[in-house]
Design brief:
326 residues, alpha/beta, 9-stranded mixed β-sheet, 44% helix, binds (2S)-2-hydroxybutanedioic acid, TRAP_DctP, receptor, Tripartite ATP-independent periplasmic transporter solute receptor, DctP family, signal
């Protein structure tokens, strides 16, 4: 007992004023699929740094970007097995488990970031996050990637009818697939880290994504046309394994929770800044021809896409949809 006390004495650290033994070091493996130079990539690193500093090294968040550990479709199982403790998938990737999350994918549903954040941070966002509990997951926050745009290799897309006959990679079946099918395009469901190859080898004609993903994955290098359409939103749910979370010492949990709130604010600002900066970089590289939809064109697209909604009113629930609309 004396030896144990002695050991813990010299190896103890302080988390937010509380003594913690070194042998009780908490390791959180955080796996994600995007590049480090993206809003999610940078926020994961910032979170890890802040936690390391603030816990005096007693909590270590190890970040694994670029599908290094697990790809889309593998992350949920890895979290549930305890191979990783934290993930931040696109909300679209939760829709197969939780269909109501499709509300975040509805084309032209959110006019601006403010409405997105109001939804994410309000009672509806909380209701969506609480659904994750059914699968032993705890939702800690919602992060941004930003509004999605379209790239393809066949012809400029200016009107929805330009989709006809093309094929696009989508993140998940459901609404994302329906939005392309509606205008005669095929939607191909592929994991993120297979997209570059699929585009460069012509397995699909195009894809939809945010500027930071287009730039960091170099989709602009293998695609000919970019339409700045802002037709849908790409956000993330930051999720931990609930069982792991619940057995953490309360001081550690409080520190993690406090820090995630702060990092969420930083992440959203970073997403906005990066999407602007990286669009400028894409323009400078001059590999892809860019067309920005006018507000008039966006209104026409919005009206044309709205029939996709009715198809999903049943799955999402009309009442829920109307709540979010409000
Ligand atoms: C995609 O699969 O296109 C995105 O969800 C990747 C990401 O996590 O931003």
């Amino acid at each position: 007992i004396i030896l144990a006390l002695g050991l813990s004495g010299c190896h103890s650290r302080v988390i937010d004023g509380q003594q913690v033994n070194k042998e009780d070091k908490i390791i959180i493996k955080f796996s994600h699929v995007v590049d480090e130079n993206t809003p999610k990539g940078l926020a994961a690193i910032r979170f890890a740094q802040l936690i390391s500093e603030r816990s005096g090294g007693s909590i270590e968040v190890q970040v694994f970007p670029n599908s290094q550990l697990f790809k889309d479709g593998e992350e949920f199982e890895a979290l549930s097995r305890g191979d990783v403790q934290m993930i931040a998938p696109a909300t679209s990737k939760l829709t197969q488990l939780f269909p109501q999350w499709q509300v975040m994918d509805l084309p032209y549903f959110f006019d601006d970031l403010e409405s997105v954040h109001q939804t994410m941070d309000g009672p509806l966002g909380k209701a969506l996050l609480s659904q994750l509990e059914e699968k032993n997951m705890r939702g800690l926050a919602m992060w941004d990637s930003g509004f999605k745009h379209l790239t393809n290799n066949v012809h400029p897309i200016i009107k929805p009818s330009d989709f006809d006959g093309l094929s696009f990679r989508v993140m998940s079946p459901g609404i994302l697939q329906a939005q392309f099918n509606k205008f005669g395009a095929e939607a191909v469901f592929l994991p993120f880290n297979d997209v570059y190859e699929a585009l460069s080898k012509g397995k699909v004609d195009g894809q939809e994504n945010t500027i930071s993903n287009i730039y960091t994955q170099q989709f602009d290098q293998v695609q000919t046309y970019l339409t700045l359409s802002q037709h849908g939103f790409l956000g993330y749910a930051v999720i931990v394994n609930a069982e792991f979370w619940d057995q953490l010492p309360s001081q550690a949990r409080e520190l993690l929770e406090k820090t995630i709130v702060e990092v969420t604010e930083w992440e959203r600002e970073t997403a906005e800044r990066l999407n602007e900066e990286q669009l400028e970089k894409i323009k400078k590289l001059n590999k892809i021809s860019i067309y920005a939809l006018t507000s008039q064109e966006k209104s026409t697209w919005k009206a044309d896409f709205s029939s996709v909604y009715s198809k999903f009113e049943k799955e999402i629930g009309l009442e829920f949809l109307n709540e979010v609309r409000k």
